[in-house]
Design goal:
Blueprint: E1 5-6, E2 11-12, H1 17-25, E3 36-38, E4 44-45, E5 50-51, E6 56-63, H2 65-73, E7 84-89, E8 108-114, E9 119-125, H3 135-148, E10 152-159, E11 165-170
Antiparallel strand pairs: 1-2, 3-6, 4-5, 6-7, 8-9, 8-10, 10-11
């Protein structure tokens, strides 16, 4: 069972524990994990959806989120199947704690996918949209808009700077 973070109506899903076990052995690019001590902290951990603390043992692994989702659902993403770097704890962790939406204090891209794994579009989300609206409400509105389209099955939340996958939100 996957531990999750709840927003008002949508769930931020970390990388599932069984997938993390696999990635810690061999990542989605076929490389063994190379753990290191994070001296500075601040890396966005996809196992527990929080930032790393200085001194934690973490690893940067290659992860193919759409491929993993497609394996569960039978989708065929074709060329949209991509892999990229994600930080995870080097050893199993308890997963997310709390209910705050993770990584919501910066611009993010919400990439929408259909049930067959095709990209249906995306949206840049700016949590400081010039209003007094709380960050979580800005994201919740964007998720609601995405899932208002009946073709949208999955949303990836990604960092703007590098395009890295942060977490997924599935249709409620």
């Amino acid at each position: 069972m996957t531990t999750t973070h709840r927003t008002m109506a949508h769930t931020a899903r970390p990388i599932a524990p069984e997938v993390l076990r696999s990635l810690r052995a061999t990542d989605d690019a076929g490389r063994p994990m190379a753990p290191f001590t994070d001296e500075e902290g601040g890396a966005p951990l996809r196992c527990c959806l929080r930032r790393s603390e200085p001194g934690e043992a973490i690893a940067l692994v290659s992860y193919a989120p759409l491929r993993r989702w497609a394996a569960e659902t039978g989708a065929r993403p074709g060329a949209y199947d991509e892999q990229g770097p994600v930080f995870v704890h080097a050893e199993p962790c308890p997963g997310p704690t709390g209910t705050a939406l993770p990584f919501a204090q910066a611009h993010r891209v919400l990439r929408r996918y259909s049930s067959d794994g095709r990209i249906l579009g995306g949206r840049l989300v700016n949590p400081s949209d010039g209003t007094e609206t709380p960050c979580e409400a800005v994201f919740e509105t964007a998720f609601a808009e995405a899932f208002a389209d009946p073709e949208v099955a999955l949303v990836h939340v990604r960092a703007v700077e590098y395009g890295c996958f942060l977490y997924e939100v599935r249709r409620p």
